[in-house]
Amino acid sequence: xNKPISPRLHGVIDYATVATLAAAxxxxxxxxxxxxxxxxxxRSYGGLSAFTDYPLSVKRAIPxxxxxxxxxxxxxxxxxxxxxxxxxxxxxxxxxxxGLTAVTLVVxxxxxxxxxx
Length: 117
Fold this sequence. Notes:
Number of strands: 0
Distance between the termini: 20 Å
Helix content: 55-70%
């Protein structure tokens, strides 16, 4: 399978995801628990991205493949959050997290984890 997402493009997607996670709860009026979850994810994704060994990092400390494993793990947990945290009845918040799940898993599947830049 062709893996069209390079480490640099993956970094761009990561930082765009962080910005989206930070803005969406305010723009879409999420309930408090969904907002807290999105804020926590924004901080953790931001930290992971800042320290991943790829072109857009602040300090290259985390191997790119370890970054991918962390994203895959979070992508598997994301669809459960609306039910676990009690905001599944809020359609916008629930669907945002389900959409984030899809984006996370698709980006992981299309990233060339062996590429070097």
